[in-house]
Design a protein that fits this description.
- There is one protein chain.
- It is built from five helices and two strands.
- It has helices at about 35-45, 60-65, 85, 95-110, 115-125; strands at about 50, 80.
- It has a two-stranded parallel ribbon with strand order 1-2.
- It starts with about 35 loop residues before the first helix and ends in an 11-residue tail after the last helix.
Protein backbone atom coordinates (compact mmCIF):
# COMPACT_ATOMS: atom_id res chain seq x y z
CA UNK A 1 0.00 0.00 0.00
CA UNK A 2 2.97 2.35 0.45
CA UNK A 3 2.78 5.46 2.60
CA UNK A 4 -0.07 5.62 5.03
CA UNK A 5 -1.87 8.86 5.86
CA UNK A 6 -3.27 8.92 9.39
CA UNK A 7 -7.05 9.16 9.54
CA UNK A 8 -8.04 12.50 11.12
CA UNK A 9 -10.54 12.28 13.96
CA UNK A 10 -13.82 14.17 14.21
CA UNK A 11 -14.69 14.83 17.85
CA UNK A 12 -13.60 12.30 20.45
CA UNK A 13 -11.70 9.35 19.01
CA UNK A 14 -13.79 6.19 18.92
CA UNK A 15 -11.63 3.11 18.74
CA UNK A 16 -12.37 0.09 16.62
CA UNK A 17 -12.63 -3.43 17.89
CA UNK A 18 -9.22 -5.04 17.88
CA UNK A 19 -8.26 -8.67 17.58
CA UNK A 20 -6.98 -8.60 21.17
CA UNK A 21 -10.50 -7.67 22.29
CA UNK A 22 -12.02 -10.79 20.75
CA UNK A 23 -13.55 -13.11 23.34
CA UNK A 24 -11.86 -16.48 23.59
CA UNK A 25 -13.95 -19.31 22.23
CA UNK A 26 -13.37 -23.02 22.01
CA UNK A 27 -12.28 -23.97 18.50
CA UNK A 28 -12.66 -21.75 15.44
CA UNK A 29 -16.42 -21.35 15.86
CA UNK A 30 -18.46 -20.62 18.93
CA UNK A 31 -22.07 -19.80 19.56
CA UNK A 32 -23.36 -16.79 17.62
CA UNK A 33 -22.87 -13.45 19.32
CA UNK A 34 -25.80 -11.11 19.92
CA UNK A 35 -24.46 -8.85 17.12
CA UNK A 36 -24.50 -11.77 14.67
CA UNK A 37 -28.06 -12.68 15.67
CA UNK A 38 -29.16 -9.03 15.36
CA UNK A 39 -27.61 -8.77 11.89
CA UNK A 40 -29.43 -11.88 10.69
CA UNK A 41 -32.70 -10.55 12.09
CA UNK A 42 -32.05 -7.25 10.28
CA UNK A 43 -31.80 -9.19 7.00
CA UNK A 44 -35.12 -10.91 7.70
CA UNK A 45 -36.71 -7.51 8.45
CA UNK A 46 -35.31 -6.02 5.23
CA UNK A 47 -33.03 -3.52 7.00
CA UNK A 48 -29.87 -5.24 5.70
CA UNK A 49 -29.09 -7.50 2.77
CA UNK A 50 -26.95 -10.61 2.66
CA UNK A 51 -24.46 -8.94 0.30
CA UNK A 52 -23.62 -5.23 0.29
CA UNK A 53 -21.24 -2.71 1.82
CA UNK A 54 -20.45 -3.73 5.40
CA UNK A 55 -21.80 -1.23 7.96
CA UNK A 56 -19.46 0.87 10.10
CA UNK A 57 -20.07 2.62 13.41
CA UNK A 58 -21.89 5.94 12.95
CA UNK A 59 -18.96 7.80 14.52
CA UNK A 60 -16.62 6.19 11.97
CA UNK A 61 -18.98 7.19 9.16
CA UNK A 62 -18.62 10.85 10.19
CA UNK A 63 -14.85 10.52 10.59
CA UNK A 64 -14.17 8.73 7.30
CA UNK A 65 -16.56 10.85 5.23
CA UNK A 66 -14.24 13.79 5.96
CA UNK A 67 -11.27 11.85 4.52
CA UNK A 68 -12.80 10.02 1.53
CA UNK A 69 -14.98 12.13 -0.77
CA UNK A 70 -16.88 9.12 -2.16
CA UNK A 71 -17.63 7.62 1.27
CA UNK A 72 -21.31 8.66 1.24
CA UNK A 73 -21.92 6.88 -2.08
CA UNK A 74 -21.79 3.53 -0.29
CA UNK A 75 -25.15 4.38 1.33
CA UNK A 76 -26.98 4.03 -2.01
CA UNK A 77 -27.85 0.45 -1.03
CA UNK A 78 -28.62 -1.39 2.20
CA UNK A 79 -25.61 -2.56 4.22
CA UNK A 80 -24.81 -6.25 3.95
CA UNK A 81 -23.54 -9.14 6.03
CA UNK A 82 -20.88 -9.85 3.39
CA UNK A 83 -19.29 -7.45 0.95
CA UNK A 84 -16.85 -7.08 -1.93
CA UNK A 85 -14.37 -5.16 0.23
CA UNK A 86 -14.36 -7.99 2.78
CA UNK A 87 -13.72 -10.66 0.13
CA UNK A 88 -10.92 -8.58 -1.44
CA UNK A 89 -9.15 -8.33 1.93
CA UNK A 90 -10.12 -4.78 2.89
CA UNK A 91 -11.18 -5.53 6.45
CA UNK A 92 -9.85 -5.25 9.96
CA UNK A 93 -8.85 -2.11 11.80
CA UNK A 94 -8.52 1.01 9.67
CA UNK A 95 -5.29 2.80 10.50
CA UNK A 96 -4.87 5.05 7.47
CA UNK A 97 -6.87 6.94 4.86
CA UNK A 98 -5.65 4.68 2.05
CA UNK A 99 -7.16 1.63 3.80
CA UNK A 100 -10.63 3.14 4.10
CA UNK A 101 -10.38 4.58 0.56
CA UNK A 102 -9.71 1.06 -0.80
CA UNK A 103 -12.67 -0.28 1.17
CA UNK A 104 -14.96 2.48 -0.13
CA UNK A 105 -13.76 1.96 -3.71
CA UNK A 106 -14.59 -1.76 -3.46
CA UNK A 107 -18.03 -0.96 -1.99
CA UNK A 108 -18.82 1.54 -4.75
CA UNK A 109 -17.60 -0.82 -7.47
CA UNK A 110 -19.93 -3.48 -6.05
CA UNK A 111 -22.87 -1.06 -6.22
CA UNK A 112 -22.07 0.12 -9.76
CA UNK A 113 -21.57 -3.40 -11.17
CA UNK A 114 -24.22 -5.26 -9.17
CA UNK A 115 -25.64 -8.51 -10.51
CA UNK A 116 -27.29 -11.53 -8.96
CA UNK A 117 -24.48 -13.74 -10.28
CA UNK A 118 -21.95 -11.36 -8.70
CA UNK A 119 -23.71 -11.69 -5.34
CA UNK A 120 -23.55 -15.48 -5.59
CA UNK A 121 -19.82 -15.31 -6.39
CA UNK A 122 -19.19 -13.05 -3.37
CA UNK A 123 -21.08 -15.46 -1.12
CA UNK A 124 -19.04 -18.39 -2.47
CA UNK A 125 -15.78 -16.46 -2.02
CA UNK A 126 -16.77 -15.75 1.60
CA UNK A 127 -16.96 -19.46 2.54
CA UNK A 128 -13.17 -20.03 2.79
CA UNK A 129 -12.88 -16.92 4.96
CA UNK A 130 -15.13 -18.59 7.55
CA UNK A 131 -12.42 -21.16 8.21
CA UNK A 132 -9.54 -18.83 8.83
CA UNK A 133 -8.88 -15.20 8.09
CA UNK A 134 -6.01 -13.43 9.81
CA UNK A 135 -7.52 -9.98 9.09
CA UNK A 136 -10.96 -10.74 10.51
CA UNK A 137 -11.88 -10.05 14.10
Amino acid sequence: MGACTTVPTVGPRVGQAASAQKPEIVGRRGPPTSAQIEAKLAVLKGEMSVVGPRPHALSHDAQWAKSVSTYGERFRVRPGLRGRAQVLGHRGEVTCVEAIAARVAADNTYIETWSFAGDLMLILRTVPLLFGDAQAF
